[in-house]
Amino acid sequence: MNERQHQLEHNLVADGLANAYKKIEPYSKLILAGIVAIVVGLIAIGLYTSGQTAKRSDATLQLLMDNPEVAQQYPGTVAAAWSLLYQGNDNLARGISALYTDRDEAETLLAEAKTQFIDARGASNDTILDSRANFGLGMASESLGEIDEAIEAYKRTIDANESEQMVEVAQERIDRLSDPSTKDFIAWFSEQDFSPADPSLPPELPGASSLPELPDLDLPELDLGDEMSSSESGEAEDTPAKSLEGGLELPADESPAEDAPEQPKADGASSDAGADSPAAEPTSDAATDPAPAPEATGTTESGDSDESPAAESEPSDAPADSDSDDSQ
């Protein structure tokens, strides 16, 4: 009984399948194509998902390796947005440093940094990335002297509400930029050019506008009074005019012959006395007082002055002796 019932049920299932196959047989090709399309779609979705995962992984790796081309190679990814943020921070630092060496290069770098911060802000909805991009945009605008744009960027940083510390720093920047003295300083600083002079060029002279005005050198007239003027006029009349044509008038030098003794005369007198007196009978005075040696004439003036009295005394004795001999 059971076997019979089982056979009947099997026949019913087979008959149902046969009837169903007969019904769908005209649409069998379409059904097969649909099944194949579904399978291919599932495979394509799987491949695409795995490709995106690999792309994001590669982008993250390149970002960690500090590759600046991540944004161009993997656009639309979070890594590309972070790459733009990193590039903006790098150009911001280089631009601020170049403000003190090359103003034109600094403005170019800061403008590129602003563009990169704006692109990074729009490439992702991440709160941290948006906050950092807005803060960097504010710093770049502040360095270029664009105070209003800087304040607006700092306000967006506060709205992002990344953290309490970031909000506090952004608010401090806003308060500082709202100070009139800070505005004046930024306006003055934006007009300065701190580029060093080219050593190959000659130094430039300052312009006439930068030179100070000449001081007032007009001195007041001196009021000497009537007495001072009259005394000066009297002294001018009493003082004879001296001619300077012949030069300075110096006192005449005194002749040294006036002070020196007449040594040649004394020598001549002694020679005459020797000629008159006989050689055989010298006087006692002549014997006791010898005549000066010839070398006495070559001595110094002091020696001549000491010996001259002796030479002068000898002629006075010689004639006396000669007279006594004649009388005898």
TrEMBL record:
Gene3D superfamilies: Tetratricopeptide repeat domain
Bias (Acidic residues) ranges: 215-226, 251-261
Record field: transmembrane: 30-48
Bias-annotated ranges (Low complexity): 266-302, 310-319
PROSITE patterns in alphabetical order: TPR (PS50005)
TPR repeats: 131-164
Keyword annotations of the record: Membrane, TPR repeat, Transmembrane, Transmembrane helix
Annotated stretches, region: Disordered: 193-328
Record-given protein name: Tetratricopeptide repeat protein
